[in-house]
Model the fold of this input.
Amino acid sequence: MYSRRKFLQTSALGSASLLVACADSETNNVNKPIVISTWDFGRAANAEAWTILGKNGRALDAVEAGVKIAEADPSNQSVGYGGLPDRDGHVTLDACIMDELYNCGSVMGIENIKHPIAVARLVMEKTPHVVLIGEGAQQFALANGFKKENLLTPESEAAWKRWLQKAKYEPVMNIENKLYNKETDPMPGGKDNHDTIGMVAMDAAGNLSGACTTSGMAYKMRGRVGDSPIIGAGLYVDNEVGAATSTGVGEEVIRIVGSHLVVELMRQGHAPQAACKEAVERIIRRNPEKAKNIQVGFLALNRSGAYGAYALQKGFTYAVKTETEEKVLDSPSIY
Ligand code: ASP
Done:
């Protein structure tokens, strides 16, 4: 008789082969090293990461160096220097980093420090803690040689002042069909707006790391923290399985502990894109009406070098760099 035990053995074998099939069908059976990151501006960040990965450097060093490019770019108004401020006019930055050994560090709401990702790394490496916030994070940065800098550029200040005229808090993020007019609409949105940079990489030694950094939701309430600096929400790395990161409305990602969820789904056998899709669907199941009008995107990489993304709305892009390819891809989406 076909016993229950036999049935379970057969299904386990079945899902193992499904797992392999999924990894292969992810368009990209890519050799390590590999680096992937969110949005079009991920391309320049990946190129910087590659200066380390291409020389057999460590993924951790690569992701830190990579996202620093976005942090230093004033034309990117949602990360680092030039980021749009909170509703009181303060640029407050969030960042986190995680390596292949579950070491992690994070800063939340840090002000006047251009490279929060570097501070997050120091929190990880030089303190017994995982998170430092606000003034304490800044104090720690200054004690470690970082300079205090004004991060509010004239462009971001002007956008904030336009927003103040109505002061309507209505986050609309990167939804392709909602066009954003820079002159009349100071809220970010539309295809040309860019969000958080999340980057995950696997180095030549097969180790994974990730970094995530943002100025958060434009004109947010003072003190608001999104998913990006929260380990498990905006970023998660498990060297046995893979790594994931997210962008979009952070509150929705925090509720489902999104990046950790994506990694756990990969552990259960989902290919990266399927894992990202399942996480997006969980956001929809919670509140289908709300999900129609916001953006959330996940990006994931597994240990075999397969990668994938999924978003609620059209318009989420991600950048990929390996030894043989360098490209920006459109993420599939539900709507
Ligand atoms: N996830 C970020 C936050 O909620 C924003 C973004 O990715 O645009 O702060």
Remarks:
- The first helix runs from residue 4 to 25.
- Residues 1-28, 176-194 have pLDDT under 50 and may be disordered.
- Residues 79 and 214 are 4 Å apart (CA to CA).
- The pocket of aspartic acid is lined by residues 78, 173, 195-196, 214, 216-217, 226-228, 247-250 (CB under 6 Å).
